Amino acid sequence: MYLKTLSAVTVMLSATSAFAANDNCGDLTIADMSWNSATLIANIDSFILTEGYGCNVELVPGDTNATGASIIERGEPDIAPELWSNSMAEAIKKGVADKRIRVAGQSLSDGGEEGFWIPKYLVDENPSLVSMKEILKHPELFKHPEDDSLGALYSCPAGWNCQISTDHLYEAFNMEEHGFDLIDPGSGAGLSGSIAKAYERKEGWLGYYWAPTAVLGKYEMVKVDFGSGVDLEHYQTCLTQEYCENPKPSMYPPAPVDTVTTEVLASEKPAVYDYLTKRSFTNEKMNTLLAWMEDNQAQGDFAAEYFLENNEVIWSTWVSADAATKIKAALN
């Protein structure tokens, strides 16, 4: 009887200790970036860590370069939930080596995705159109908005980095000789608007776009296969540079999109860090969420609750059973 009582007390103490550890998570700062996917993830993290792990969370404004530099040099904020790390890959590598930060995992499991895209309904009608080789034979399917005798390739607006790569790929594929003209849409809204217009009219469209975005959540698009694979060195040293003497085709490499934390958080709050290593989104899922945010003019906090209320099968795999129970109770 004594042993049974002692065992019961031990179990109760262990449970109490675990509960206290969660409830004493303490203060946390999370970077709330200015674009929709990042603010959505930041608010999801805030809700889960507040309700599931007892953290006292503060969302702080951020962007890629400023947040990246601050978390490495000053240890603030504690969490950068969606860091597009290509632009500061060396600094992040050094920060990890110096034990200032850790890369917890991929915010976007597919990475940031770029490429040339066409509407899915065109591929449904002609499956061979997934290849650039086949597209070049049919400029008539991608009519220029001002000249029916030409096909059109929509580039990025002037001043965007992707305009450089699109222009070089236009040259690499000899698209002018194949009857295509290169179009500057004038703005990001002009580029997305051209896709919406094509979809409404069930017309052909060919151009640069990226994921995750609300546009690719609303409109089913298929990424064109250049037939080249990814030539990373050529992409970095030529296609993305203003001057590229001999551009050659290369698919766009995926851009790493990671969750980065301070080393202090990773060491002192292992339950929080464990959650962050598991929390990740596919681009398909994020595209759908971004489209919902746009259609409902939803801010990050409202969109976070929408995600959590409707996707328990996803987020429950990221958290402990105890945290999942608390999160469901908070949602109810």
From TrEMBL:
<dbReference type="InterPro" id="IPR007210">
    <property type="entry name" value="ABC_Gly_betaine_transp_sub-bd"/>
</dbReference>
<dbReference type="Pfam" id="PF04069">
    <property type="entry name" value="OpuAC"/>
</dbReference>
<dbReference type="GO" id="GO:0043190">
    <property type="term" value="C:ATP-binding cassette (ABC) transporter complex"/>
</dbReference>
<feature type="signal peptide">
    <location>
        <begin position="1"/>
        <end position="20"/>
    </location>
</feature>
<dbReference type="GO" id="GO:0022857">
    <property type="term" value="F:transmembrane transporter activity"/>
</dbReference>
<feature type="domain" description="ABC-type glycine betaine transport system substrate-binding">
    <location>
        <begin position="27"/>
        <end position="310"/>
    </location>
</feature>
<protein>
    <submittedName>
        <fullName>ABC transporter substrate-binding protein</fullName>
    </submittedName>
</protein>
<keyword id="KW-0732">Signal</keyword>
